[in-house]
Amino acid sequence: MYKLLFISRHNAVRSVIAQSLAMNTLSEQFEIESGGSEPKGHIDPVVQSFLSDNKLPQAHRYSHSWEERTKFLPDVVIILCDSLHQEPVPKWLSGGVRVNWQLDVMPEDASDSEKYAYCERVALSLQRRIDRLGENLVSGLSKESIRQCVEELSTL
Fold this sequence. Notes:
The protein is an alpha/beta fold. It has 4 helices and 4 strands. A 4-stranded parallel beta sheet has the order 2-1-3-4, covered by helices on one side. Helix 1 crosses helix 3 (112-136) and helix 2 (45-53) crosses helix 3. It is globular and about 45 Å long. The model has no long low-confidence stretch (mean pLDDT 84).
């Protein structure tokens, strides 16, 4: 069993979608959580609609701080922050494999239909990566093998 943590700034869009997709795809193989550096306190309503429309699990109804996940001790931390926008990334959890799967930020001033289209694009990108993650990770891989596997998925 692997522990997987998805991180983004607000834990209201990208990491919530990633957690939901991973729970739907990898639920038997992984324990999955998400968190953010500056949680908004709520999940974006368009994201909730997207998850509901696609019959995807909604792990939580509010955004979580990554500080709430410090006792989780993940094996793999996937950072979904967009470095072009100077988003912070955690310096802790150095015991786990940390990789960045960069995803653009959803524009806050976008219309609901633009936000929904963003969710669809992000979900497609993440689903490809998560599917491959599930195919490639097997018990007994070394930390370096896990890192290599997860880093290769950053470009899908």
